Amino acid sequence: MSTTFADLQISAPLLTILRERKMETPTPVQSEAIPLIMAGRDALIESPTGTGKTFAYLLPILSKINMEQKDVQAIVLAPTHELVVQIAREAESLLPGKDTAVMSIIGGVDVKRQIERLKKKPVLIVATPGRLLELIDQRKLKVHEVKTVVVDEADRMLDAGFGKPVQEVMKKTLRDTQRLLFSATIAEEVVHTAEIFTRDAAVIRAAAPEGAAGVAHMYLVTDPRKKVDTLRRLLRLVNVRSSIVFVNQIEKVDEIVSKLNYHHLPCRLLHRDATKEERARTLQQFRDGAFPVLITTDVSARGIDIPGVECIVHYDPASDADTYIHRSGRTGRMGRAGLVFSIITTQERFIIQKFSKQTGLPIAEKFMSHGALEDPRPVRKPAPAQKSGAPTKNASPAKRNQNRAHKKGSFGTK
């Protein structure tokens, strides 16, 4: 008998919302994580991208929150503006009619407006760690009633860029505050680092849902000068409604955008240098299907859930295997099928081989021919060279006679 959300002690109002969405059966990560979170345990939880990690922590947290107590009772930390906004929207959708219960806090916006919003007494805050720490240090935000802190995308949040502010936020909360870390990839270094601020944390490594359609991983080898044309041909060949193309440097993007638009493949660029409003508008238009191709740096590789993305293209190789996993995880979410391609040069082949070994994913080489993806043709070994003047096994009678005549001419006759 399969587990249901009702079996996991989710609150009645949340169960009603889940039933309206026709969500009855939890995913593996939800089945494993929710009981631990409801019991108050600290935990590090790894699960493939698109398997329902956000609901794995929001459902138990919101089930336990006291809506009558007008204090911040839970904090979710995330690395990017886009992911913060996405998580906050999911939380708001689970609390209909409670417009001030959830608040998102990000850098780059008017801090005075955020301070004013805090006066409305939210119970759940979703934030980037830098701005959150700033408000705590200014004593504009009290965290003494916080019962749970979630660190989403934990592997990135504990690296050199985010690690210090995340740990500072942890220090501001009480020692018995529940600490939860979620990510698609949790390496042993992350487990070791988390020991500093967790207590007897459980480590869960959940599987993908059974019956998942799966994601096919492939790569194409091309000349560096032909990469844009290879991308254009690939997008035409797969002919899907929604693709994300990852690049490492935005300097390359102008040529890509120009060529794709010229060939009637409408695309837009999403990158860190754009304003918050521009990024939000571009993402929403992509979600709405206003254009089929989103070109982005790794700003979109973490946690962004865009339903229906059918194809991911690594125009530039990911920096490491974990980044490859996170980028690729924008497709095939919740068990759907998906396509992942890497466009590489001959010199970059070793990178794909390394990623395949480190992730355990088969990444197959393909080439495009006559509108189809085909396997590389096996390289034929050259036939062994024949000795000069020696007749071949399958030589014609005329050829054999010619060889004999040649020998006579060479050595003469008696």
Description:
- It is built from 15 helices and 15 strands.
- With 414 residues, it is α/β, with parallel strands linked by helices.
- Strand 3, helix 5 and strand 4 (124-127) form a beta-alpha-beta unit.
- Helix 2 packs parallel to helix 3 (53-64).
The DSSP helix count reads: 15
User: Per the principal axes of the C-alpha atoms, what is the gross shape?
Assistant: globular
State mean pLDDT (0 to 100 scale): 86
CATH architecture of the largest domain: 3-Layer(aba) Sandwich
> Could you give the count of β-strands?
15
Bin the helical content: 25-40%
Radius of gyration equals 28 Å
Order of helices and strands: HHEHEHEHEHEHHEHEEHEHEHEEHEHEEH
Q: Superfamily at the CATH H level of the largest domain?
A: P-loop containing nucleotide triphosphate hydrolases
Give the strand line-up of the largest sheet: 10-11-9-12-13-8-14-15
Helix vs. strand class: alpha/beta
Pick out the low-confidence regions: 390-414
Query: Which CATH top level class of the largest domain fits?
Result: Alpha Beta
Q: What share of the residues does DSSP label as strand, in percent?
A: 15-25%
